[in-house]
Design goal:
Blueprint (H helix, E strand, L loop, with lengths): L18 E2 L2 H10 L2 E8 L2 E8 L1 E3 L2 E7 L3 H6 L4 E14 L7 E12 L1 E2 L3 H15 L3 H4 L5 H5 L1 E7 L2 E7 L17 E4 L21 H4 L13
Antiparallel strand pairs: 1-10, 2-3, 2-6, 4-5, 5-9, 6-7, 6-11, 7-10, 8-9
The structure holds flavin-adenine dinucleotide.
Flavin-adenine dinucleotide binds next to strand 3, strand 5 and helix 2.
Length: 225
């Protein structure tokens, strides 16, 4: 299925022309970001918890300590709402009212399940690691049995989702275009600094290329050096 079915819950009310249900476009956003906010109700209280994630095909994986309340709650198949946001620019209008932000965001609804199959669990952890830092998994030590037991991995089937995307210049009221006020967009980009070595780094260990040249959106690179 190349499009998410637009349900009553995922139909945008404000500026519906900014809605996007095409899976490919939604997945582009999910693959560029790596932090989501997971909303759920526990003991009658709503919680929204930030966490990392990775997408593999039509599933979103999150992971953490098996003792985590968020993960223990979600594995009981409670309703969950997961959001992802990318910020592309600050939109400066001529009036305070019409200021905006260029963004791409996704809202996903559903029920997560615990990943029990050891092979899928390992693959999810690989996907998680490589989604944030492509190439990392192949260099580091894999989780051992006790680390795997201490880790809970959940998958959320991507069935009900919407994206909302704002691009372009400000949209001012017609008379305001005459005002001598600077208007336009301040682009915002993700930048990285120089790698800072761990004080206990084994002497002579080089910074691999995939870290020296880390960027987001991530570049496709040759195998690391
Ligand atoms: C950028 C980012 C990425 C993260 N990635 C992961 C991940 O991949 N896996 C993972 O398990 N955890 C991740 N975390 C941590 C996550 O937000 C929770 O803190 C963690 O899951 C611990 O949950 P818990 O069950 O101990 O806390 P809970 O029992 O869920 O929380 C108890 C209370 O602690 C407070 N709290 C919990 N987390 C936070 C927080 N992040 N900020 C402020 N207050 C908080 C809240 O008041 C909450 O009600 C990430 C956090 C950030 C900010």
């Amino acid at each position: 299925m190349s499009r998410f079915e637009q349900t009553q819950r995922t139909t945008l009310k404000r500026l519906p022309q900014r809605a996007e249900y095409d899976r490919e476009r939604v997945y582009e956003i999910l693959d560029e970001a790596f932090i989501c906010h997971v909303g759920f109700v526990f003991d009658g209280h709503p919680y929204v918890i930030p966490t990392g994630y990775a997408r593999v095909e039509d599933k979103l994986y999150i992971h953490g300590s098996a003792a985590s309340r968020m993960l223990r709650t979600l594995k009981e198949a409670v309703e969950v709402c997961v959001t992802v946001t990318l910020i592309d620019g600050l939109v400066m209008a001529r009036s305070a009212f019409h200021h905006s932000i260029n963004y791409r965001s996704v809202v996903m609804l559903g029920k997560a399940v615990a990943v029990e199959d050891p092979a899928e669990k390992m693959e999810a952890l690989r996907a998680f690691t490589d989604h944030i830092v492509p190439g990392r998994w192949d260099e580091v030590r894999e989780p051992n049995d006790s680390e795997m037991r201490a880790t809970l991995v959940l998958s959320l089937p991507l069935v009900e989702a919407s994206a909302k995307i704002r691009t372009g210049p400000p949209i001012d009221d017609e008379p305001d275009y005459e005002l001598p006020v600077w208007a336009g967009v301040i682009p915002l980009n993700f930048t990285t600094g120089e790698p800072v070595a761990d004080p206990r780094l084994k002497a002579g260990t080089p910074v691999p290329r995939y870290l020296r040249e880390y960027s987001r959106p991530s570049k496709q690179m040759e195998p690391f050096m």
